[in-house]
C-alpha cells in the first residue's frame, strides 16, 4: 500500500457539524497523519487544508482537472435543495457536488447527513436537505453513516479502496458489510441482561448502576447496524451503551426523526 501512487482525494463539506472530520482525526489504524502523508493526497478539505479562499478553490479545480476520472470524492453533510441555504465561494452545495462528482472514480458519503440526509433532513427540513445518492446516480457511491461514523469505518473503507481498487461488499443501504453487517444488540455486552429480563427503568436506578439492559430507556440498537460494540470509540475505549446511554440509531436512515429515544418511551 505504501508503494502505491497516492491518489487524489477531494473532501466536500456541506450541511454538517464537522463531527465526521473530528471522528477521522481520532483514527489510529491508520492515523490521520499516516493517511494524508503516506496513502492519499488530500487536495481539498475545509478543515485540514492549509489554503483558504481562492487558493482553496483553485486546489479543488486543479485536482479535478489533473485527476479526471480517477479521484476519490468524499462528502460529509447533506445538500440543501434550496440552493441559497448553503454556498461555498459563491457556489451552491448542489452545484459543487454535481461539478465535483462528474469526474470522480467513486464517491464516499461520510456520516448520516451525506448518506441519508441526517439531522438537517429532520422535520420540518427547512433547507430541503438531500443525501448524496438522491442527487448523484451515475457514480459508485458507498455510504458510511453514523453521527459521526466510526473512525475505522472511514479509514478502513479508504484503505480497502486503495489496496483492492474497488469498493467492498455493501448491504441494501449502501453500507460496507464489514462494518455494518451486524446488529449492535447482537454484539452488546449488556445482552445477557436483556435475555434475562433485567432492565434499567431510569438512568439512576439500581439497574442502571448494575449495568442492566437499556432497552426500556429507549435503546435503538435492536434496529441498528453498526460496529460500535466491537470497534468502539477513542481507540477502543467505549461506546454510547457502555457510557450508560442507549443507542439512538445514528447510523440508520431517518435519523433523527425515527432515531430519537423519545418516540418509544
Ligand atoms: Fe440490546 Fe441496547 Fe439492551 Fe444492549 S442495552 S442489550 S443493545 S437493548
Ligand atoms: Fe450511533 Fe448507536 Fe453507535 S447511537 S454511535 S449507532 S451505539
From TrEMBL:
Location of the protein in the cell: Cell envelope
Residue sites binding [4Fe-4S] cluster 1 per the record: 17, 20, 113, 147
A single GO BP: anaerobic respiration
Residues binding [4Fe-4S] cluster 2: 185, 188, 213, 219
Sequence ranges assigned to domain NADH:ubiquinone oxidoreductase-like 20kDa subunit in this UniProt record: 17-160
Catalytic reaction list: H2 + A = AH2
Cofactor requirement: [3Fe-4S] cluster; [4Fe-4S] cluster
Domain Cytochrome-c3 hydrogenase C-terminal: 180-259
Keywords: 3Fe-4S, 4Fe-4S, Iron, Iron-sulfur, Membrane, Metal-binding, Oxidoreductase, Signal, Transmembrane, Transmembrane helix
E.C. no: 1.12.99.6
Entry keyword Amino-acid biosynthesis: no
Positions bound to [3Fe-4S] cluster: 228, 247, 250
Enzyme kind, highest EC tier: oxidoreductase
Keyword 4Fe-4S appears in the UniProt entry: yes
GO molecular function, one term: 4 iron, 4 sulfur cluster binding
Subunit structure of this chain's protein: Heterodimer of a large and a small subunit.
Protein name: hydrogenase (acceptor)
Organism of provenance: Thiorhodococcus drewsii AZ1
Lineage of producing organism: Bacteria, Pseudomonadati, Pseudomonadota, Gammaproteobacteria, Chromatiales
Span of the entire protein shown here: 46 to 310 of 354
